Amino acid sequence: MKIKSVNTYLVRPRWGFVEICTDDGLCGWGEAVLEGHAATVQACVEEMSEYLIGADPRRIEDIWTTLYRAGFYRGGGVLMSAIAGIDQALWDIKGKYFNAPVYELMGGACRDRMRVYSWVGGDRPTDVGAAAKERKDAGFTAVKMNATEELQYIDSYEKVDQVLERVAAIRESCGKYFGIAVDFHGRVHKPMAKVLAKKLEEFDPMFLEEPVLCEHMELFKEIADCCNIPIATGERLFTKYDFKRLFASGGVDIIQPDLSHAGGITEVKKIAAMAEAHDVALAPHCPLGPIALASCLQVDATSYNAVIQEQSMGIHYNVGKSVLDYVKNKEDFAFVDGFVRLPVKPGIGVEVNRELVLEENRTPHSWKNPVWRHRDGSIAEW
């Protein structure tokens, strides 16, 4: 069996898909995208395709290593996102070849279902108490929200109080034991992160996400020392070597590698094992589409330290199209009592609506994140 073709597609709301087909008719799907740079990753996949045509798709480790190590320059968001989508598609082919879900080829599942959470609020969150109650009534046991708007290195306690009021609204509407994840989104710098972390303790959050950017990973321990709340990060790290430095720095309790950014199933499975060796939990980042979500669930299925899974159904980014629009086997992605069952179809587990993908690709999206500025005119972290 040899790879015959590599096709790429840009589809709304902001995703990129890759389809790899073989000479015996098997096709695999991956999600190769870096939000805001989808066309760049698409070009990178096309550039890498010369290493793929004619190769045996079952030799995933060899292909992955070729794409990563045969290039003088390696790592980073664009290259690793391209490899991630290719890797997912290769695993999809291999699972279909053996007529089994991918997790069965990685040792089998260590759980029957995976806990999931839902997003509430938007970039500038409002009415989160009511929104969280709706999610709870729908069966979810946890939500995540953006903590704050723009925040300067030193900012007003009015903004701090607004964060506390929003989290308090969720706690009041959903009860003491409902899970609340508070995402700082890298918008907060160390001085205010320490203030917020300490003050949020009273609400018993499930975790604080990206209290500072991983560019400052040596600071996580300092922030962790300010509070008794688990610290989560990792969506902007792309290789096992990035995570090696994170674990060495300490202070992090939950890692959030992205299956479409951090080298795909092959690399994230290794990262998950590294985390387990450091007694750190796994909660993969996934504000993306169905192929990325299904890939996360394959790793979750085989990772003892996986605790909860992000998913983007209902997220504020999904304008025009959403996750299940591209899925024919929608019933496999039903959320029941805050859990989703493991994929059951061979391969990644998504029967892709290829006709819709082709239609969307006729008018490719060019999604970009907003550019925020502080009141003094300086650029703010989004």
TrEMBL record:
CDD domains: D-galactonate_dehydratase. InterPro entries: DgoD-like, Enolase-like_C_sf, Enolase-like_N, Enolase_C-like, Galactonate_deHydtase, Mandel_Rmase/mucon_lact_enz_CS, Mandelate_racemase_C, Mandelate_racemase_N_dom. SUPFAM superfamilies: Enolase C-terminal domain-like, Enolase N-terminal domain-like. Coiled coil: none annotated. GO terms for molecular function: galactonate dehydratase activity; metal ion binding. It comes from the Bacteria. Residues 125-230 form the Mandelate racemase/muconate lactonizing enzyme C-terminal domain. Pfam families: MR_MLE_C, MR_MLE_N. One of its GO terms (biological process) is amino acid catabolic process. Keywords: Lyase, Magnesium, Metal-binding. This is Galactonate dehydratase. It comes from Enterocloster lavalensis. The lineage of its organism: Bacteria, Bacillati, Bacillota, Clostridia, Lachnospirales.
